[in-house]
Specification:
The structure holds 2 protein chains of 2 kinds. Chain A is α+β, with helices and mostly antiparallel strands. Chain A contains 8 helices and 27 strands. Chain B is mainly α. The longest helix of chain B has 25 residues. The N and C termini of chain B lie far apart (53 Å). In chain B, 69% of the residues lie in helices and 0% in strands. In chain B, helix 3 crosses helix 4 and helix 7 packs across helix 9. Classes of the chains: A alpha+beta, B mainly alpha.
Chain lengths: 448, 179
Amino acid sequence: MTSHLTPEEATARAFGLDSGKPHCDDCARRIEALRADRARLAGALEESPSARARFPRLISALAAALCLAAVGYAVLTVRDPGVGPASPRQDAQKWIAELGSEDPAVRDRATQALAEMGPRIEGLLKKSLLAATDAETKARLGDLLARIEVRRIDRLAVGSGAAVRILKTDGTLLRELRGDSKSDVHVRDLAWSPDGAWLAFLGDNVTPPGQLSWPIMDLHVADAATGRIRIFARKACTPPVWSPDSKLVAVGAGHPGEDSELHVVSTDDWKELPLKAAGTPCFWSGPSLVIFTGAALEKLDPATGKSTRLCDASSSATSDGSKAYVFLRNAGGKFDLQAVDLGKVWSVTLLEGIDSEYAVPPAPQVSPDGQWIAFERRGPEIVAVRVAGGKPWTLLNARAPLWAPDGRLAYQDAKSWETEILRAGLPEGEIQKLPGSSPAWAPAQEKK
Amino acid sequence: MRESVRTGTMMPVAELGRTEFEAAWRRHEPALRRLCRYLAERESDAADLVQEISLRALRELDGFDPTRPLRPWLYAIARHVIVDHLRRRGKWWDIERELAAAPEEAEEPACDPVLAEESAAKIRDAVRRLPEPYRLVILYTAWEGFTPSEISEILGVPPGRIRIHLYRALKRLEKELKE
């Protein structure tokens, strides 16, 4: 007895995905009916959906004019270092002059202030060292430059198609890591482990045989030394987060929030912890993992699976060790940037009414010195605000800000997805372009 | 470019590759623009997506194997751009939900065409309302004229799975048209 084509088989033949003659007249009729549907569908789709119907001409013209104005604004002002907070150069010159003071307290205060400015004033320190005449100033300037050199991070990893490339910040390629299982693994959300040994990232998964699946994303962990890539936790969707000892890496399966399933993988045995928890990993606070549950930040003990509530939240968060920085959705549907003391003593709003194109905004990024918070808002553009207050600094057509341990800021060009680095940190304007996306700075210990 | 990467210095895309790419882009850009108009919620988003696809393709040109056809490669890059777009909108994970909710047992299809009585505009609107991955599958199988292996390469799904996705996509489309 001849079996009929299954519905999928008939559809596949009608749409040209399979070939072969039908077994019987009944199957042939079904295929013909589906072919007629395909022709009708193809004809309807041939015409683009009408943009004008949804966007009247006047609105389109206004939008175009606004775009031109925005581009003009960007060209003329935003990448100009004069916009935003005052340049630290003048402050630095004042502090450098005080290094030669006869008062030791004044000299110490000036040294401390200059040390906090870090690599941003490296050029000025070098010039001042050459020009200095007194021994005390020379010694202190030399010490400050040595400290900057020790803190300097000169490497970062970027995603380039299916490869992870480790680059020097001048663009020189040091190493390329590439998995061999699938050529089309697109690298996203790179995270370098604090000990420098591992690079975690999200890559398109390999559809498991026999399962009806779609290439969501898997957690991949690459050995930075050998290039070997391991694949874990199928269907990951939120950026990987490393524990401070580099022994655990956490990732969320699902969109950020309550329906994100938490996975934590140990680098000791490359097994997943037997943890049943919902939430997006944000950062580690000692042995605990702070997670975003959709409406709050919670502190989770991975050993027991128990969690305690920290504060209301509408996004993932980052931390400087004592405070968490997080977005909270306000009554108007926009987001307020909050600083929350992890001891729950207080919280303060740093900036109100932030518009985001994300359903759940990515976590605001705190600078290593705890002075700046950078985040992405609708535009897309990057905004950086001082924790202490002041005029925000803005960079148009940029996404995904990420601070280096030495205070420089990397981000992605919104269109090309290329990495760019502000060479000297904020608010200096000089930009270094690097080929590759999703940058991850080498950890501070990586410095030779 | 490839030589430069091997020797450790990142250089701009070679002129020859760029010229070839620009010629190919001019051929494929109208179809990609149309694709993005179906995927984006706003016209300005569609324009941004098209621009992002061109720039990312140009950036990854050194990874392209010139012995293979360019069109599936270009559309696979488009998929990566679309993934990023859907992630930002909080809709990427909906694909997983959609597949999990789909019936395991296939139903018998009707023998009569289900779209014959519908206007083109109504069909277009219904396709725009389809959740992913069904919208993408419909756009690639019904309209763009790719071979089964090309669709598999572009969508990152084995050929045997595409037919199931397609069948379910059509059932969803039928449901959308009835509502």
